[in-house]
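A further point concerns the way the authors explain their paired sequence and structure data. The central task, working out the structure tokens from the amino acid sequence alone, is never made concrete. I therefore recommend that a typical entry be quoted early in the introduction. An entry of this sort, consisting of the sequence and the corresponding backbone structure tokens, reads as follows:
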Amino acid sequence: FDPRHYLGTHGFGFPKTGPHRLRFLLESVKDLRETLKKKGSTLVVRKGKPEDVVRDMIAQLGSVSAVAFQEEVREI
């Protein structure tokens, strides 16, 4: 979870993620984790800036050969 997603928007100061959307996200992540657990897998969830969290996870794992990202489309 990127803390920047819970700050105000640039133009109007409204939260990017309000309480209802946050609740939906938390419930979705919980459900995904439970589904993966039933299949013998797991879900790693972290809080922080992705550029920091991913770097730290790569350092912790030690032998990462590839990392894939999806960039968020930004409105102008």
